[in-house]
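Fold sample X.
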Amino acid sequence: MKVLFVTWDAPEVNYYESLFLPALAQLPRHGIHVDVLQFRWGSQRARDKAARLSKEAGLEYCSANVWRRPSNALGTLASIVRGRWAIRSAVRRFDSDVKMVRTLLPALRQQLKAGTTHRTINKQSNTQDKQ
């Protein structure tokens, strides 16, 4: 199974690098391949560090910019709307079977998307069913 992990992180936190990356790196031994899409703002240096650490852990990584202008609120709203294309592009790029959304804003983006089909995992048969 191929999972796209979608996260939204501010530059002053490193939840992805310190908390989630070590856990996600363990999943391939259980047959789960993980790719990462991180919505973030801040320095290119921090983005490069996340990409490097992901690669070292065996995970594919891409990032999408979060706009902070003309104001934080308007930039965030625009980023949520634009996030639809970033998520769709990452799903195609990584050929993902499942999206695992970590934070509220990517989850909100997913809920606002009209016509979304959700997939559930049937634990007994390990098959995917569209609802």
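Fold sample Y, listed below.
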Amino acid sequence: MIINSGLNIIDSHVGLVKMMECNLDARGKAVRLFGGLFSLLVGIIIGILFGSEILIDSIWYSSSIIFILAGTFGIFEGRTGWCVVRAMGFKTPI
């Protein structure tokens, strides 16, 4: 809780809930969910190939981590219906 100078109590969670309102339709949720699942799967496969020493360059390790993080965030956006780009005020086609 935050108390401002006017002695009004402001719940800090209200701002977070307002900020993360659903701003995607069903099509946008589906695109982000399936894109996230695909990215996560690619990241896991690259990670397994790197761990098995089939891919030996360190760029593959970094790529695996990036794909896994991006996929996880895409799944989060698809499940919650919230897009970070739209929340910043940009219009996206999907």
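Sample Y note: DSSP finds four helices and two strands in the chain.
Also: Residues 38 and 71 are 7 Å apart (CA to CA).
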